[in-house]
Amino acid sequence: MIRAMIVDDEAPARSELEYMLKETGQVEVVSQAADVREAIENLKDAGCDVMFLDINMPGATGLQLASALNKISRPPAVVFVTAYSEHAVEAFGVNAVDYLVKPVEEDRLRQAIEKVKNHVSMVNKNSPAERIPVEKGGKKLLISTDKILYIMAKDDYSYLHTATDRYLSTVSLAQLESKLELHGFFRVHRGYLVNLACVEEVAPVNGGTLLLTLTGTDVQIPVSRRRVSALKKALGL
Description:
It is a single chain. The two termini are 20 Å apart. Helices cover 31% and strands 33% of the residues. The protein has helices at residues 11-24, 36-45, 62-69, 88-93, 106-125, 173-180, 228-235; strands at 2-7, 27-33, 50-53, 77-82, 98-101, 131-136, 139-144, 150-154, 157-161, 166-169, 185-189, 192-195, 199-205, 209-214, 220-223. It folds into two domains: 2-125, Response regulator (Rossmann fold); 131-235, CATH 2.40.50.1020.
């Protein structure tokens, strides 16, 4: 799920865009801001993968914010959403992923989301692997995500499984899902998060569900019926 911030000085415009983004089923709106100052504070507090950013706002403009974001180490993607088409050249000059003109059409928004997903995926591939804090034998460790085969929920905690060991994380599976989805992990069941790069075999079972076998193991992970279609799409099946 893409984590988004909407930045627009008009509350109705923010609400309408939030509704449209939620309807796609691919975007979680984690915060909203009415101006650049508020957007910066939200970014410090919660972060996001993409900003849907208006241009003309009181005080600093969206173009100025986008330019400033380029100076931080891992800036969010920027999609401008504005009533004016004449700023498009300037927008791409500050590395915007896309430029939408209000009123935003559903198909055009979905195109922008695909561009954002590709952008975020590329950034993640070129960045060091995410590391997750875990516990083992009374010690605190950091496990690289590319070592994790799957993660299993355990009450409010999680167990991270590698090819050779199991580690406890005090972070819930839902929180790990949000953190790792853009690193190739997929929630196949309410109790399991799987590294898709480690899926070796996909076997159908009675009832229209699936069992996943992971590379180098005899572990079989169940896929809930409601996740089968999305998983097949993610794996290109």
